[in-house]
Amino acid sequence: MEKIIYNKVTPELIDQFKNIVPGKVHVNGDINDDYSHDEMPIYGKGMPDVVIEATTTEDIAAIVKLCYENSIPVIPRGAGTGLTGAAVAIFGGVMIDISKMNKILDYDKENFVVHVQAGVLLNDLAEDALKQGLLYPPDPGEKFATLGGNVSTNAGGMRAVKYGCTRDYVRAMTVVLPTGEIVKLGATVSKTSTGYSLLNLMIGSEGTLGIITELTLKLIPAPKETISLIIPYENLEDCIATVPKFFMAHLQPQALEFMEKEIVLSSERYLGKSVFPQTLDGVEIGAYLLVTFDGNDMEELEAITETASEIVLEAGAIDVLVADTPTKKKDAWAARSSFLEAIEAETKLLDECDVVVPVNQIAKYLTYVKSLQEKFDFTIKSFGHAGDGNLHIYACANDMDEVEFKKQVHEFMTDIYKEAALCGGLISGEHGIGYGKVSYLADFVGETNIRLMKDIKQVFDPKMILNPGKVCYKL
After folding, report:
1. What is the number of domains present in the chain?
2. Domain containing 332 — which CATH number?
3. I need a surface site. Which of 57, 303, 374, 409 has the fewest CB within 10 A?
4. Domain that holds residue 174
5. Would you say residue 324 has pLDDT above 90?
6. Any domain includes 462
7. 290 vs 321: CA distance, rounded Å
């Protein structure tokens, strides 16, 4: 591929943008520093030359068409909550902020779908759907991310073990292509064999193939009852080894999370509230499972809880603590949801990965990762989705030089990604590749797969203007 040369944004272009969206074009000192990074600034910062707050698909198409004609980079951005540098303007250019496109447009209850703009927050749809007696099952940890961002990374979350990832709930979408053309992909149907699935190609493409502006998402009837269990173990190995037993017993947890003691302590310091026991019957707790079941009534859930309790106690659990009131459930899951914020509050230098491995390889893989601790000067912390093998592993430091930290982290990540491959896993389960993981993806999937990805990118975006330098190619 020839070297890409981008042009600068001129005053004349800025005037044209202002004609398209009066009052919504920001330049120079008007651009908030938050636009220069996402939630993982260690992957680099880059200030866009222009930030445009878009409110319609047609406005975005007109802006992108101008950028395409003038070879100007375009970076789509939602809430900026990503963890891989995917929504960062590494090469300057025009950033299109879709967060103001935040309307829930309509429900089709006969077909169990909802039509939304891509800037709607996950939390807002989740709450609104429940008022309709419906559930939007995808449940990523960051509740204030946009749905367009969720789709762009194929976010998973805690309910993926039972209900699947975001991809499984996208029926249709409206997309602005890098040329400024508007296309509609998919339909309000549950199956298709109608040519190549451009819809599924767009899902998980991290804003490199098109800008998603509207979505039609599948819903399900909301479960009437839920119950959560906090299950403490003496060590992580016993904790993780229990996970396959849930499925062998035909139990279907809505969520099945694991966490080590250190991350729980960080969370409780952050929240100022203790939820998980530290010792039980004189035994020091080292790890926990947090499990939620849903169903039609409490009688059904009590029977499930009884079966689950027998399984985990026989497998080495110290006890089973039932969170059966709204307050107890809220406290337990609030602790789990705050893990990243808790780490950030106590850490000056932070990097992370979200590998995914087969469920029966979790214990082996985490044991290997923990064995590397003595090689590095940073602290390794981990938690994750035990039910689907998606693991969140953090490198944390407060007293290291940043250059040395990055050097050591690169060695660490290279090592654990190779181990993930040996375990039959992949390097990202839900956060994506973005800018920070491009080199790791290239090493992981090999030359042929990278060539195919680059060729796909070339077809959609011949001038390589859309979110340049992300996922499968460097500039």
Report:
1. 4
2. 3.30.70.2190
3. 374
4. 104-221
5. no
6. no
7. 10
Please identify which residue in the block is written with the tokens 């997309």: 175
**Domain annotation covers residue 466:** no
Greater pLDDT, 1 or 119: 119
Task: Please identify which residue in the block is written with the tokens 């900026």.
Answer: 80
Residue ending a domain, among 221, 236, 259, is 221
pLDDT digits (tens, 9 = 90+) for 350-376: 999 999 999 999 989 999 999 999 999
CA distance 441 to 69: 31
In whole angstroms, what is the distance from residue 231 CA to residue 235 CA?
Answer: 12
Residue 273 one-letter amino acid = K
Distances (CA, A) of 268 to 275, 286, 290, 328, 454: 7, 15, 15, 14, 44
As to burial, measured by CB atoms within 10 angstroms (0-12 exposed, 13-18 middle, 19+ buried), residue 314 is: exposed
Convert the pLDDT of each residue in 420-440 to its tens digit. 999 999 999 999 999 999 999
Q: Is residue 471 part of a domain?
A: no
Same domain, 320 and 243: yes
Q: Which helix (H) or strand (E) holds 400?
A: none
pLDDT, residue 325, reads 83
Q: Do 164 and 69 share a domain, yes or no?
A: no
Span 122-169, pLDDT tens digits: 999 999 999 999 999 999 989 999 999 999 999 999 999 999 999 999
Residue type, 190: S
- The verdict on residue 473 lying in a domain is no
Same domain, 182 and 278: no
What is the pLDDT, as a whole number, of residue 2? 61
